[in-house]
Fold this sequence. Notes:
Elements (H helix, E strand, L loop, with lengths): L4 E5 L3 H12 L3 E6 L2 H7 L5 E4 L5 H5 L8 E4 L5 H14 L4 E4 L3 H9 L4 E3 L6 H9 L3 E6 L4 E7 L9 H4 L1 H5 L2 E7 L2 E3 L12 E8 L3 H6 L1
Parallel strand pairs: 1-2, 1-4, 2-3, 4-5, 5-6
Antiparallel strand pairs: 7-8, 8-11, 9-10, 9-11
Helix pairs in contact: 1-6
Amino acid sequence: MKKKSFAVFGLGKFGESVARELAQIGAEVLALDIDEEKVHEIAPYVTRAMKVDVCDMETMESLGLSNMDGVIISITSNLDASIMATIICKEAGVPYIMAKSGEEIHSTILKKVGADKVIIPEKESGLRVARSLISGNFKEFIELSSTVRMIEIAARADWIGKTLRELNLRKRLNINVIGIRDKNDIVMNLDPDIPIKKEYSFIVVLDKRDLPKLMKS
Length: 217
């Protein structure tokens, strides 16, 4: 499965946390900021980092934004730059544009010029945003410790009709299935030979180092 790719404009606290988490859980990340020091600091943790002025059209056109699965615009200190970046990404055909907003009027403008979702960072953490972007299959994501995660993930198309015994997820993906949600009911005492249904979701526990493997599977 091809890795998902994202560009993050603006490497303040929120943008940096989104970029780092996306990279950690298996995405290709292009991190962009006008501040060269911020670019230098994040470079070891992402696929590529660049100093970019969003008003420099020639540079913006060279970024390959049309190939991205999504763009996160985390610029609030400069409203014009935020709007310009949103417009450029929209015109490039980016399929999903998420923009950070500092106030209601800013949110309204960003939606008008093409942002698919506008968020207020005080209400949504960078980590949660990154996890929602990397996989629409993730329904819940809980940190049990610094290394262990519990995730609820929707049944994948290639899992439907197979049994847990056939899937052998512990061996293939190094994840432990501790329960299955069937609509509103959670079954903890699992029968490994019952075929998986489309409406099932899995509650699994895994080491955070195995997240990239889960994303690619």
